[in-house]
Write a structure and sequence with these properties.
about 210 residues; alpha/beta; Rossmann fold; 2 domains; two-stranded antiparallel ribbon; 10 strands; about 50% helix; globular
Length: about 210
Amino acid sequence: MTIGLTGGIGSGKSTIAAELAKRGYPVYDTDREAKRIIVHNPAVRSQVETLFGSDVYDGDTYLTQKVAAQVFNNPDLLHRLNNIVHPAVKFDLQHWIKSHDKPINDKIVNRQIVNLFVECAILYEAGLQTLCDKVVYVDAPEDIRIARTIARDNSNPEQVKARIHAQSDYSRRLADIILVNDGTSTISELVTHLLAQLDNGGHWEIIDTH
């Protein structure tokens, strides 16, 4: 199966993804791959330069802050950027999924024996849920999410809170599994429970080991 792994800021989805990778599961990090595509895909880079100017690149470095300054409070410009990047990431993800098909006796066998994971904060917004068999939403109480983000980024608490409130719970409502990462269970325990649930078919459930 291909499983989408999503969740809001500070939920811990990247930590869950890291544990899955540590256990040998293939994980496609859309944020990392999007940055690669923006720099190394000639068609995407050309469109980004047309939209923002060539000075948003410094050699093979994409100057995220320059782009962020331009799209801030400009939804139309952000929408146009997403229309360039999201389809390219989706195309790349399709090839990544296909690369894990196993040829047996000259036939391509569906990947029933391996779970692939797609880490993406904006899974539904980017339309990537259409490539996933199941979607897992990593969740945590707001105060924990704020504390985690501050510890990670040295962010301003009010700014983090504003970012959390700006994010929709749309993904949570549509997910097949809610994984509660509130610190009462270890990451290892959560991942073990998640994998067991996926082995059982991944029907809608809130996973909280306590």
